[in-house]
């Protein structure tokens, strides 16, 4: 058979690792074209919440596809977007009054950064500095790489990245250093601080408590610095609540949502903004409009999927499923032998496997991923950090299969 022309993300094709061909998916299961099946223990890169091919979401997609597929969103609108925006403002913090659509987590963050800078410019205070948290990851576009951790992910693109101020990660017992650094950056006139609330994903599933998040937000508020919450991964129940920020009583000025917004079925993202940020761009002067869009902004089919997801949250016991999964994760993580620094944040469990290397390029990762694949489980270690982030519908037996793979490798 002729080799595939596909160039896969985060894949070194020179290693000739097998790439399974998946024919269909249902619940937590991925079914291969060759008859094999895998438990999706990482929600296909953290997106699938209720399970693959959820009937209500699939039905909404099919119904909308038969009615309208795509519409320019600059100066035009459609009912799925209007409905979704109303429903989002109804369940998110009331201060977030405006909904701007985009199509991925990276673009949601880019939008937030641009809104923050536009806010200060239009107020006549052109603050430009962005403050970020050590080990953070916000995407792979130029702006999001700039506000993420510098290293192997983006070394080749360094000439394109803009400068930011980085504050240290708030390790237990060393939080004051983080507070002091953020305080100094805010006093210096920063425009915005961007953070992944409670859980840093690609940075190694690093966890910090709600009290720290609340303290960081309070520092920003004292100095009038905009607080951007990148909840692309942490929202929709991953950390145990609808938003991670709610555990800290924090309401951001800008909120980035994607991944679970559609239940993980199709790409869609939103950036929710406070009325003050919207008002700063509101004018009879066309030069003050918010200059951002993409061809598929607020795609009707994706918006219909998101509306179905919100209906599931309203009408099904999603929070109970999340609480059950969090408890099951806690039990299995506590019983897992041979791992270091086990940690839990809502439905996400993580730990370090024994290794003489650390960091994303640790050789343990491809060996572990291959062993999991052979055992019928999709797991994808971050260096020597292994994590379990399954759809909420996973059963006790299926979760046991996942942890058996980890225990066998530890």
Automatic annotation (TrEMBL):
Similarity comment text for this entry: Belongs to the class-III pyridoxal-phosphate-dependent aminotransferase family. BioA subfamily.
Species, as recorded: Novosphingobium piscinae
Reaction equation(s) it catalyzes: (8S)-8-amino-7-oxononanoate + S-adenosyl-L-methionine = S-adenosyl-4-methylsulfanyl-2-oxobutanoate + (7R,8S)-7,8-diammoniononanoate
Primary role: Catalyzes the transfer of the alpha-amino group from S-adenosyl-L-methionine (SAM) to 7-keto-8-aminopelargonic acid (KAPA) to form 7,8-diaminopelargonic acid (DAPA). It is the only aminotransferase known to utilize SAM as an amino donor.
Alphabetically ordered keywords of this record: Aminotransferase, Biotin biosynthesis, Cytoplasm, Pyridoxal phosphate, S-adenosyl-L-methionine, Transferase
Signal peptide extent: none
Phylogenetic lineage: Bacteria, Pseudomonadati, Pseudomonadota, Alphaproteobacteria, Sphingomonadales
GO function terms (MF aspect): adenosylmethionine-8-amino-7-oxononanoate transaminase activity; dethiobiotin synthase activity; pyridoxal phosphate binding
Highest rank taxon of the organism: Bacteria
Compartments, record wording: Cytoplasm
GO biological process, one term: biotin biosynthetic process
Enzyme class: transferase
Residues holding substrate: 45, 137, 259, 293, 380
Pfam families: Aminotran_3
Pathway: Cofactor biosynthesis; biotin biosynthesis; 7,8-diaminononanoate from 8-amino-7-oxononanoate (SAM route): step 1/1
Enzyme Commission (EC) number: 2.6.1.62
Gene: bioA
Residues bound to pyridoxal 5'-phosphate: 105-106, 230, 294-295
Assembly, per entry: Homodimer.
Sites marked Participates in the substrate recognition with KAPA and in a stacking interaction with the adenine ring of SAM: 10
Gene Ontology CC, one term: cytoplasm
Record's protein name: Adenosylmethionine-8-amino-7-oxononanoate aminotransferase
Cofactor: pyridoxal 5'-phosphate
Residues bearing PTM N6-(pyridoxal phosphate)lysine: 259
